[in-house]
Amino acid sequence: MTLKKYHHIFFDLDHTLWDFDKNATETLIDLYRQFELMSFNLFSEFALVEKFMEVNNHLWDLYNVGKIDKVEIREKRFTIIFMDLGLTPEQVPPDFGEVYLQSCPKKTNIMPYTLEILDYLQEKYELCIITNGFDDVQDTKLTSANIKKYFKQIVTPESAGSKKPQKEIFEYALGLARAEVNKSIMVGDNLQTDIQGARRVNMDQIFYNPNDLFHKEKVTYEINCLSEMVKIL
User: Model's pTM, two decimal places?
Assistant: First the structure.
């Protein structure tokens, strides 16, 4: 049952609508074979995926709190990964990161019920994206997955001049959408960037928790599947 009338719904993109883990996994397996990494006889394609998730998550955590920037993620990520997996600096494929960035955003896997819930919501609300991802990459993801058409505004750190969980990016998004904060709600999978960030501007939140992770955060609503949003909105 809807307890509050909303006009605007702000969505996170990666891990909330666009299935980052599945798309990254497919891309890395493709590139493992393309770059013939098995010839080193040091690690499997699955070990590459596992190490990527570990390193990438750590680097994005640093980015989200302002300790590194976009360039450092792109330049350091695969060097760290491959050296952790046993390659020497000379053995690291120099263009692997660039090919990954060209390939992964074109993958089309989305989270379960993404299209169904967006179809349902677009008839009733104005939908917007607030993402910490980069303009070029996020635009490709939205276009490739055929979901860009649902969103009136797409807000990134590059357009807003700040990133989640900073309140400024939420204030910028609200202003761009001409939205009232008490009639807006944020949907995301990250308790720090999405939930705590929205709370900083007193915006309601829906914590998307598909893996049912334990936490002690106070959230307005919590769901395990996007389809559950019909019970709230």
Answer: 0.95
